[in-house]
Amino acid sequence: MPPRTVKLRAATVAAVLALGAALLAASPQSGAAAAEPAPVTDYCRGQCDDILPPGENGNATLVEILGNKTIGTHPAHSDDQLDRYNGLVAGHTGLTDQKLTEFFNDASFGVPEDQVESVTSPRSDVTITRDKASGVPHIKGTTRYGTEFGAGYAAGQDRLWLMDLFRHIGRGELTSFAGGALANQGLEQQFWPQAPYTEADLEAQVEYIRTHEGARGEQAMADAQAYVDGINAYREKSKNGRYFPGEYVLTGKIDAITNVGEIQPFKLTDLISIASVVGGQFGGGGGGEVQAALSLLAAQQKYGVAEGTRVWESFRQREDPEAVLTVHDGTSFPYARKPDQARGTALPDAGSVTAEPLIHDRTGSAGTDRKAPVEAPAGLKKAQGIHDDGVIPEGSLPGSGTGAQKRGMSNALLVSGKHTASGNPIAVFGPQTGYFAPQLMMLQELQGPGISARGVSFAGVGMYVQMGRGQDYAWSATSAGQDITDTYAVELCEPDGTTPTKESTHYLNRGTCTAMETLSHTNSWKPTVADSTAAGSYRMQVRRTDYGIVTHRATIGGRPVAYTSLRTTYRHEADSIIGFQMFNDPDYVKDAASFQRAASNIDYAFNWFYADSRTAAYYNSGMNPVRAAGVDPALPVRAERAYEWQGYDPAGNTAQYTAFAEHPHSSGQDYYVSWNNRQAEGYATAGFGFGAVHRGDLLDDRVAKLVEEGGVTRASLTRAMAEAAVTDLRGEQLLPELLKVIRSGPVTDPELNTAVQQLESWRAAGSQRRETAPGSHAYGHADAVRIMDAWWPKLVEAEFAPGLGNELYGALTANLATDESPAAGHGPSGAHSGSAFQYGWWGFVDKDLRQVLGQEVEGPLARTYCGDGDRTVCRDVLLAALKQAVAEPATEVYPGDGSCKPGEQWCSDSIVHRALGGITQKAIHWQNRPTYQQVVEFPAHR
Predict the structure, then answer these.
(1) How far apart are CA 483 and CA 706, in angstroms?
(2) Cis peptide before 736 (omega within 30 of 0)
(3) CB of 580 closer than 8 Å to CB of 213
(4) Within a 13 Å sphere around the CA of 887, how many CA atoms are in the beta-carbon half?
(5) How far is 722 from 736, CA to CA, in rounded Å?
(6) CB 505 within 8 A of CB 638
(7) In this predicted model, what pLDDT tens digit does every residue of 689-739 receive, in sequence order?
(8) Is the pLDDT of residue 209 over 70?
(9) What does the alpha-carbon distance between residue 178 and residue 168 come to, in Å, rounded to a whole number?
(10) Residues 406, 481: contact at Cβ < 8 Å?
(11) For residues 346 and 561, what is the distance between their CA atoms, to the nearest angstrom?
(12) Is the full-model pTM beyond 0.90?
C-alpha cells in the first residue's frame, strides 16, 4: 500500500466500495433526462440563514462596467447583500429571531414559485433557478453529470473572470494575463513559489485522486470534469453571444468591435492550480522556521545559549496555559510539542542566512511601477487604468504583500442544545476570507443524485458546497494553522567532489550528491486599457529538492546548506475533494460522527464545526505528519533520514500521518468558539501569538456568559458575534491593566489626565469602534480610539525594546507584528480588510504588565520588561509613550490612502471590497466578522 493511502480511513473503505457502483453509474455524459429525483425535505424549517456581500453576481459586461464607471450603476444582484450585511452593526442590539432575515438571506432549500426570477437549462438534465431576492443559483439535476455541469455553468455565469484570474495566479502567470502592475508582480512572486508545478505535476495530481481514492476518487474527477464542461459551455456561449465579462476587452484579450480573441478553455489541471491558491492560503500551517531560528540566535547572542533559549521560548508560547481553547474540557491531543531533548536541529551560523533569489532577467518595467498608457478608444476612457494598482491590490489576499504573515481566518460560535431556549444546538459561523468584488466564494444550492446542499464554494472549485448546510445539518470551518510544514537544511555538494559553496545547485540526498530541479516561468506584459504598466518581463525560478522548495541559503558550522520548505499538502492540492464530496452526500453525513469522519478526509489545516438538531461537534483536519522522535518542529532540522517524517516517500510527497483520534475533536461540549485560536491542550501552536490574550477571547467571554445564563437563541448568539465584531481587543483586554499601572500614582499633567479619562470612559462603554448613528461616519469616543491607535505601537516598543535590545526586538517583531488594528494598513491584513486583532503583542503586554503588578501569571515571560519590573519606572514609560500619542495629530495616525483623506478615522477602518474586476462597491462600516456567515438552528432530523 503506498504511503499516502495510510491516511485512507478504515471506517470509510467499506462505504466507498459499497457506494462505488452506484456513484459511477450516476455520471451519464449524454443529455438525456433521467427520472425526476425524489423531493428533498428541508429539516431547517425556515431557521437557516446566510449572507455573502456584496452580491451573487460577479460578472459584468463591458457596457455594465462602463455604466459603473460613468454613472455608478451596478449589475443586478452585484450589491444587493451589502446593505443587509452592513446593517447588522447598528441593528444587532435590537435583534430578534424574527428580524434575522433583515440582515441575512433565507437559506431554505428551493425557490417558491412566486420568487423565481429566471430558469436556465443548459442541458436537458439540469435547471438553474435563480431567486428574485439575491439571484443565487439553485441547481437541480436529474443526473450526476447534469448537476455538476450545471454547477460549472452557474460558476461561469457568476465568476468567469475571477476564475480565470485565479487559475493564472496559481500557475504563476498573472502578469502575462492581467498586466504588469507592481502589485501583480508581487502577488505572483508571493504565491507561485509556495506551489510551483509543471503541467505534468498538475496532471499527476488529477490522476492520483482518480487512482488512489477508490470509487469516490473516480467520482470526484468525473464530477470535476462535468464542472469544467459546464464552465466551458458558458465560456463559449457568452463569447459568441457577446455577453462575456468586459474585463476581457479592457485587458486586450477580445476586440470589442470585431469580437476577435479568445477566452482560453478551462481544464482539470486549472482546478488543481486554483485549489493550490485557496488551500495554501486558508488551509496551510507551519513554516517560518528560518525566521524563528534567527530570533532564537538573537536571544542566545544577547543572553547566552541557556538563558537566551528560555527567553525565546517564553515569547514563542507553544502551549500557553492561559490561551483560549476550542476544546476546553481538558482533553489533550499531543502534537508538534517541544521535545525534551531535541535532535537534528539545524541553526544557521550567525549572519550567514540569505534568501534564495526568485526573479531573474528583468526587462522594461519589471520591478518598477512605470506607466506607458495606451491611447484608449473614446468609449473606453472611463475604464482606463482600472487595474493600474493591480488586479488584486497588494496585501489583499492572506499571506500576500510586503512583510505579510499567513493569516488564519474565520470564526465560529456554537452552543449545545442543553443551553438553548429550544433545546436544539445553534451555530453562528463562517469563513473570514477578506472582502472582494466579486467575492472569492459564490453561493449556490446543489440538488442531484448523491448531492444535497446549499452554501458557498470557492469560485473555480465549486463542484461541491464547501461550507453550508445539508438537509438536516450545517457545517463551517476556520483556518487552523497547525504545523504541517517543516524546514529542512540540505547539505550542499558538487558532483565532481570539489568544495561546495552557498551557490551550489546540488545537495546530499540520502548520501548521494543530487541535482536540484529547476522550475521556472517567464512572464511578459504590455500596457492595456486596464493596466497602463509599461512593457516588461522577467523569469521566476525556484529550485526543488526531495525535501521541498529552496527558500534560503546559509552555513552551519561553516558548511554550506540550503533551507527548504516542505508541506504535507504539496503535490496533494486537491485531495481534499473527497471530504467535500462526503459533506454534500446525505447518505454519508447523517450525524456528528459521520461528519467528523468526512472532515478527516480534508488534508488542509482547518477547524470544522457541525450542528444538527441534536449535536454540536468539532473536528480538526489536516495532514499532520508523524515526525521522527526528538525533532523540534519549531526550528529547521537536518535533511537526514533519521530526522525525516516517518514513512516519507519523496516521489509523491507521502508519509505517515497522525490518526483520526489524535486530531482535536469533540461532540456535545457546552459550547465551542474559534477565531483561529489554539485548538486544545497538548496541541502546540505553529507560530507566535497564541498567548493569554487572543481575539478568540472576545467570543469566548461572551458565549460563556450566554451559556451560564441559559436560553440561548439564534438572535442572542448573533448579537454576541456582532458585538465582538466592533470591539477593540486592546481596549477590552489590555486597557484595564494599562490604566491600573498608570493610576497607581497621580497623573499631574492635565493633558495626559484628560487622555486617561477619555480612555477610561471608552473602556466603560465597551471599547467599541462604532458609529454614533448609522451613516454618521463618526465614532463614539473618537478621541479615545485615536489615542489607542497612536499609543499602542509606541507603548509596545517603549515597554520591550530597552530590555530586549534592538536586534532581538527586531527579530521578534519579524516573527510577530506588534499591531493589527483595523486602521493599521502596515499590519499583516493591509488596510480596509475587516479582519483585525489576530496578530499582535497583546499576550506579551498582558503577561508583562501583570508581572509588573505582582499578579499571578501562568506561563510567565522569562523576564519582566516594562521598567525592568519596577512599577514606578514602568508607569513613567507608559505615560511618556502616551504623551507622544496624544500629541500625534489624526492626520498622522490615519494618513489617508486611495480610499480616504488624511485624518478620516471611520474611513480608515472601513471595509472596502477590493475590485477584482471592473465593478467597484461603496465602503462599509468596519466589522471583524466572517465574510460568508450562517445562522442555523435545526428543529428536526431525518
Answers:
(1) 33
(2) no
(3) no
(4) 7
(5) 22
(6) no
(7) 999 999 999 999 999 999 999 999 999 999 999 999 999 999 999 999 999
(8) yes
(9) 9
(10) yes
(11) 10
(12) yes
